[in-house]
Amino acid sequence: MEPIPVSRPSVGEEELAAVRKVFASGWLGLGADVLEFEEAISQFLGASNVVCTNTGTTALHLALETLGIGPGDEVLVPSFTFVATVQAISATGARPVFCDIREEDLNLDVEDARRRLTPETRAILPVHYRGIPCDMDELQELAGERDLHIVEDAAHAFGSSYGGRPIGSFGEMACFSFDPIKNITCGEGGAVVFRDNGLLERIQQKRILGIDKDTWSRYRNERSWFYDVVTQGYRYHMSNISAAIGLVQIRKFGAMNRRKIEVARRYDEAFGDMDGVEILGNRDYEGIGLFAYMMRVRSHRNELIDFLAGRGVGSGVHYIPSHLFSYYRREGLVLPVTEQIYREIISLPLFPDITDEEVERVILQVSSGLRDLA
Ligand SMILES: Cc1ncc(COP(=O)(O)O)c(C=O)c1O
Questions:
Q1: Which CATH number does 253-373 carry?
Q2: Active-site positions?
Q3: Is residue 347 lining ligand 1, measured as CB closer than 6 Å?
Q4: Cα(82) to centroid of ligand 1, in Å?
Q5: What CA–CA distances, in Å, run from 179 to 42, 141, 251, 274, 291?
Q6: CB neighbours of 65 closer than 8 A, spacing ≥ 6?
Q7: Start-end of CATH 3.90.1150.10 domains in the chain
Q8: Fewest CB atoms within 10 A around its CB: which of 21, 154, 326, 337?
Q9: Does ligand 1 lie within 6 Å of residue 185's CB atom?
Q10: For the structural domain made of 13-248, what CATH number should be given?
Q11: CATH 3.40.640.10 residue ranges in the chain?
């Protein structure tokens, strides 16, 4: 029997055909397909401005830098996230200030964030963990009181809504990731989505080495030799190859997400009453673009991962809290909920093409592992 990975992208002939078309055009880099993908995202989310990047990490870095965040500034961020979120902050020279999460949804604890405000605090970087939106009303209230920026890390939340509005359609700035295991993939890719039209040109320039060259000529796949450089920038743009994959994926999002939610509901049903396990909240998945399936196991989490690996079932830990890494360790910092969740969390296989037989195999192996290890 084939091992079941914890995640696998759902890509095939349609994506290949789209990439073939880009090959035939001879224009592989930033060009017309990227523009088309940006327009598709904008329509899908109802977002004002979309700038696509080569990763979600670079989208976050670009967003923070464009807002002028840098040395001497502090950014409030949950420690319980992929370290990419935090690296994007430290890349600007600003200091990540780690906050705890709430048990109910494993998202940023806004009250804890409030306690960590200082005169240097400039921004909040909440993460919509596994696609479940943060409490944006509470966050916007806090940001409003202190005139802070909010840059949402929406890497997990493509297709999720908050209060009936898509993530990316109503906040100041949100950054998406289209890496291989995200809700939709471009192979690798990301996007900065934002409200302020005045920032569009600056973000476009910064993503391609500060070059002020008329974007339209690139978007029309035309080459002209003259350009000026007007600001510090990076080589962070998306390629036509990635965008072509993304354009197929965005059309498939609904079906892929429905299947993931169907499987998540089956897991919830199977694990809901099982001893030693706690399934996470938000079980109707209404309005959720679901990234992954995580649950809590009360004890022997690491042994369960080994047990499953030995039986061909992939699992993982998302995430090691950032404040526990050598580079980010802070003397005396204890985040009780984050550290407790880190000991208990496990991610189980969830991807659009998982078969019913594989799902039942996961359930069987998890329950026999829990029984053996109890
Ligand atoms: C929460 C979170 N933020 C940011 C990122 C960075 O995205 P990317 O892998 O596209 O750079 C990821 C992806 O791994 C993520 O899970």
A1: 3.90.1150.10
A2: 182
A3: no
A4: 6
A5: 19, 32, 17, 33, 12
A6: 92, 206
A7: 253-373
A8: 326
A9: no
A10: 3.40.640.10
A11: 13-248
